[in-house]
Records
---
Amino acid sequence: MTSLFTRRLLTASALALATAAQAQTPAQAQTSAQERPDAPAANDGAIVVTGSRIARPELESPMPVSVVNMQEANRLGLVTAWDALIREPSISPGVGRGNAGSQGFDGGSASINLRNMGTNRTLTLVDGQRRVSGSARSSAVDLNMIPAGMIERIEVITGGAAAIYGADAVTGAVNVITKKDIKGLSLQATQGLSQRGDAPTTSLSLVGGSKFAGERGAVSFGATYVNSKGLTGYDRAYADRHIGHLEK
């Protein structure tokens, strides 16, 4: 009798434990899920690639490169390559319209001076090729020898490029990229004044080109004329300051 009672008691205890375990399992699972509200979402393994056909040559060089677009420069009233480049912060005034007369030579020429270390230490290329000097006293290239209407853009390497181009590119290099697909004839004329109505400037640019031999060959030409009356220090009161002498 005692053995039978003991077996029934053990059976009842086992059923009670099983019932309690079944009742606690969903609650524990629910609590475990609530304790991890920030669980990361499942990754489906998709990779999104965005492509662009916009040319960014300044991002394809290991050295810092700035690009000057001549079409955008013309919208600002800048008619020559020297006027467009002089707005770059890394370019110091070399020889140009503003100071050609003070140099004593090379009147009418325009050259680039990177980092204010001299025009002889800046290399100027045309379509990646070296160009002869525009002066008998300097190795600097005269930008006025390149028609402004045939220039597409100008790339300026401000880092030291002597390891690539040689000792004449210590301060950097300027690469003038010309237009490659010129068809027909175009004439551009601009005229402007200063804010005070003086220093008139007149510019004429003529560019033409044609293809032949089934478009296997091409010929192009260009010419630029610029006439500027100039602006001297005597024309402005704040600049017309002479060194005087003391009188008794």
---
Amino acid sequence: MDAQLNFSDIYRQHAEAVFRLAWVLTGNRSDAEDLCSEAFARALAGGGQIVQSTVRSYLYAIVRNLAASRYRRPRVELAAQDELVDATPSPDPGPEQQAELRQQITQASSALSTLNEGERHALLLCAQYGLSTSEIARALGLAPGHVRVRLHRARRHLQAILDQQERRHASP
């Protein structure tokens, strides 16, 4: 038996996850905030109560549809390097460590930009936000098997690029 929730409960329970998906789909905080706000507004305006067992999938679908309609050809801009550095846990690294970390982030950002959009979305939802395969499948409207394939291809592609970059830097 599905319990019906009030809107404030829905927002409290799902806002962070909906925002993360919106960020992955848009690539920047401002657009993600806009999509997230609009998704919740549409859910509220949709009339009827949302059933607890389907609320996250419903909100994900709204965000996906909004992103698709706003961006005919969605462009995922990678998060600014400063944002990635801020998100990296590190107890006061020294200047050399900071320089090395920035170089690694630059290389990773460059490698991520070579992935196709579907692989990049799946990988970011998994690696950056810790979503499971089934959660990614719901967020992107895919079968779990398809998500596993995208993740495998993305990881294989990234590893090849990073290995190539490492060989370039290692050779004199």
---
Amino acid sequence: MVGVPSLKAARSSIVIGWLMVAGVAIAIAALAVGATLSTTLYGVPIAISFLLAALHASSIPLAIPRPLLAGVISAASVLLFAVVQSGSDAAPWPWAVVTLVTHSVTLVLVGLQARRWIAVASWATASLATIAVALVLPRYVDAPAINIIIAASISGVAVAGGIVWREWREIRAQLIRARSESSEEHEFRVIAEEKTRIARELHDIVAHSMSIINVQASTAVFRHQGVPEPVAREFGEIAEAARGAIAELRGVLGVLREDGSPLALAPQPGLEEIPALVEAASRSGVTIALEGDDSRELPPVGEPAALAAFRVVQEAISNAIRHAPDAAIRVRVSHDPTAMTVEVVNDASEHGIRPVGSGHGITGMRERVAAVSGDIRTGATEAGGFSVVARIPRREAGA
């Protein structure tokens, strides 16, 4: 990514270099032909012919680095040639062919390099000045309007060509930049989504396990009679270490947290693992019950929906254990033909330990349920407890 701008700049320099070489070559040819024809066909003194031809030819290479100056020089040269060549009836007037070609090439380059008004102003000045010369100067040859119209039309096409070429280059450059920015944005989004997935998995798995350890260690001396004082202190230290690990984990989650998350590719738990999850929580001394209905006659649940249901139950149990360790918990998973409903409700707590929460758990549950087009409601119950109710659409397995 770092070397791309340098490569583009090098290519641009090479193109400009070749344009300069081509411009100098065309200028030399225009000088040789223009000076010769001006003297032989129009009878202009050789010195004046050479100076005017050199002046006009110089506008071609100048159009690349100095388009405004080149436009002024070309328009002035056209006017001067019309004046000095007006006394001959042996060649086209007011513009000789070489003058028209030189002016047109200059206008193409000016239209390509500069703003539109510079090229248009140079073209309009040369054309209007030529009309003025044809009207006011005495001459030996008629200057039919058709000659001026043809010359102005050809040079006008040159201006339009340069401007269109420039516009095409700018549009192409914008498309390239937009494509590059889109690619970079996609890379950043992928990274952010992966960070979010990691944060969610850390919270769902590690925080849940640490919460169980904290509650088991904190309540061990109450659940087992006659625990020696040294053992009780060790349980307290274990609980304190678990709480510290949870606090540090929240800091890591704050760094990783971003919106959005792709589905994990590794095998993930589903509805079948919910009973084991409830049993593991009950071993920590929490009163917890699992309820459900028969879903064998219904279409199978897809892996994303099953994973979302499992994570909702896991996080809701973790929250209940952290905030109300002495409260009873009820888990219910019910099914209907279109969706399944996951409900986790805990009773009010009288002696609950309430560590400061970061909100990552509820945020993670909402994200998981939203990812499978479901909805979730969380809030306090009338009895003083807390409930989490998620309705998740059924998906065919593999969908």
